[in-house]
Write a structure and sequence with these properties.
By secondary structure, this protein is an alpha+beta fold. It has 4 helices and 18 strands. The structure holds 2,6-diaminopimelic acid. 2,6-diaminopimelic acid binds next to α2 and α4. Belongs to the diaminopimelate epimerase family.
């Protein structure tokens, strides 16, 4: 089985050109094995690029545990770069994912992806919950560098409040220069990843609401830099949300599992 490996700010994916529609998408154990960093290729998730009659392509995203996930922003940016590398489009593209239609553009390995509109936020005392294509908790903390992201993230992800689906959890520090530093515990990977696109999108919108940070918001994650721009069109309702940052092919190979 031929595969490609892509990464976007260190969020890494096994990418499969499945235009022939023959990858066994229901084989959760196989997908988990391919994503395993010791027994397989190693990745935070696996993405299929399939044909769709109404769009340039269809994106199907699986978390590293092998189950189909909700929207993945960095995976979306990576599959756009992949479709570009395959010659499916030249400047801008329109594709379909689990949360609906997306448009995107590519220039010099930087991909700008239009995210789904956000239609509300649940602002609690010590966290905000919102859906940016995937469910996210955003919590502001001091000294994020030394924060126990995995320990506290796991507690929130498995807490009764978010059952049965669970949630991704973002810890966010507002820096003196009004940029954000974000670290994310990801559901389905069940660990901290180097970057989460839907997560930084959630962080940017929450920072705007809570601290008035204007669009575009610059964000540092463990794996690099991202930018999120947006327009507020109603109370906690956002449109024209764009996630922008690098996405690159890392290697190609053939899996024998
Ligand atoms: N890494 C992804 C998020 C994946 C969401 C996934 N962990 C789920 O909750 O199904 C991103 O860049 O947006």
């Amino acid at each position: 089985m031929n595969f490609y490996k892509y990464q976007g700010t260190g969020n890494d994916f096994v990418m499969i050109d499945d235009r022939a529609d023959n990858f066994p998408a229901g084989d959760q154990a196989l997908i988990a094995r391919l994503c395993d960093r010791r027994f397989g290729i190693g990745a935070d998730g696996l993405i299929l690029l399939r044909v769709d009659p109404d769009y340039d392509f269809r994106m199907i995203y699986f978390n590293a545990d092998g189950a189909e996930g909700s929207m993945c922003g960095n995976g979306g940016r990576c599959i756009v770069q992949f479709a570009y590398d395959l010659g499916i489009f030249t400047d801008t593209t329109r594709f379909i994912a689990v949360d609906g239609e997306h448009t995107a553009s590519v220039s010099d390995d930087v991909v700008s992806l239009k995210m789904s509109n956000v239609t509300g936020m649940d602002m609690q005392q010590d966290y905000t919950f919102l859906n940016t294509g995937s469910p996210h908790v955003v919590r502001f903390v001091d000294d994020l560098e030394s924060y126990d992201v995995v320990g506290v993230g796991k507690q929130i992800r498995y807490s009764d409040t978010f059952k049965p689906g669970g949630t991704n959890v973002n810890f966010v520090q507002v820096m003196p220069d009004k940029t954000l530093f974000v670290r994310t515990y990801e559901r389905g990977v069940e660990d901290e990843t180097y970057s989460c696109g839907t997560g930084v999108t959630a962080a940017a919108l929450t920072a705007y609401k809570q601290f008035g940070l204007p669009s575009p918001v610059s964000i540092r994650v463990l794996g690099g830099q991202l930018r999120v721009s947006f327009e507020e069109t109603g109370e906690a309702t956002f449109e024209s949300i764009y996630l922008t940052g690098p996405a690159k092919q890392v290697f190609t190979g053939s899996a024998t599992v």
